[in-house]
Amino acid sequence: MTDTKNVWVFIEQDEGHIEDVSLELLAKAQELAGTLGGEVWALVCGHEVEHLAQMAISHGAGHVLLVEHPELALYRSLPYSRAVTDLVRERRPYICLFGATSVGRDLAPRVASAARVGLTADCTDLQIGDYDSKKDRQIYENLLYQIRPAFGGNIIATIVNPRTRPQMATVREGVMRLQSPDSTRQGSIERIDPVIEDRDLALQVLSRQVRQSTVHLKDSPVVVAGGAGAGSKEDFELIRELAHILGGEVGASRAAVDAGYVSREHQVGQTGTTVRPRLYIAAGISGAIQHRAGMDQSNKIIAINTDPDAPIFQIAHYKIVGDLAEVLPLLIDTLREKAK
After folding, report:
1. Are residues 45 and 88 in contact, defined by beta-carbon separation less than 8 angstroms?
2. More confident residue, 225 or 138
3. Separation of alpha carbons 208 and 239, rounded Å
């Protein structure tokens, strides 16, 4: 087991484009490695993706493991897990992080199982701290605090893995701040020739069709979100109208999605999208912790609810106690008048 406290980040890419969550994790890895006295390593896998190694360096990696092979051009579970597991077993990083994407949720458990280590999924925060084990009568230092909602989002749990390395976690997209790249940063690139066996190629990609999403919650500076308080699919149109006037995107709580007011790709929260807009308007949303976990870092939050004790008011900068069916038309009319 290595004594070095290096933090690895798996760089998820698709056709030569790095997913934002990987760049967010590089920024967080710098913070963690700084506390530990270690270094940030980026693990770039693919085919003809050398340009991504320099991009990872500009976003905070000090070292890049560049794993290139034609069979890694598109993500497939077996060849990717083989390549990543071999490196994790050989190098034994102190911490290994993945995005909580469809790829990360498939790859990270496979690597953790093969390496016989624990894994915490869907984290919303990561910190370094100590753990006093009463059972072992021992204090474990410099552990990764893996923080995530638990029990349906009713509590925030802090999970530690004191005995095995690496400490592994998947992290939700949007919960870490993305830093601007620094093109002057220098780092080393180590090329790795992975061993891909025939049995790793049991699944072949015959064709690929990509459907572009029409909802861009994460990138929108304004999000107007509605909850069960909208009352009906028809009344939810007020949310859409206000979002349109403000040039923003329509968001929703899980309750609104479950009620059929809007499609699931609009969902904000623990099981939806995490957003950090300049303005977030929550209309008819009570503010359960599952929802707040996905929007509480917004710069300005305006909450509209009939219940003066609604949890959403605890984090709102501006609070309007009232029925959204009465409040939203007033807002819409006022904004239209100012636009004239």
Report:
1. no
2. 225
3. 35
- pTM of the full predicted structure? 0.83
> Where does the pLDDT of residue 153 fall: very low under 50, low under 70, confident under 90, or very high at 90 and above?
low
Question: How does pLDDT run across 28-52, given as a tens digit for each residue?
Answer: 999 999 999 999 999 999 999 999 9
156: exposed, middle or buried (Cβ count in 10 Å: 0-12, 13-18, 19+): middle
For residues 312 and 60, what is the distance between their CA atoms, to the nearest angstrom? 35
Q: Kindly tell me if the per-residue pLDDT of 1 is higher than 60.
A: no
Nearest-angstrom CA–CA distance, 278 and 325: 24
> Do the domains spanning 7-201 and 222-339 agree at the CATH topology level?
yes
CATH architecture, domain 222-339: 3-Layer(aba) Sandwich (3.40)
Q: Does domain 7-201 have CATH number 3.40.50.620?
A: yes
Assign 46 to helix, strand or coil: strand
Q: Which two tokens stand for residue 212?
A: 């572009």
Backbone angles phi, psi at 250, to 5 degrees: -90, 125
Query: What tokens appear for 265 in the block?
Result: 């790709």
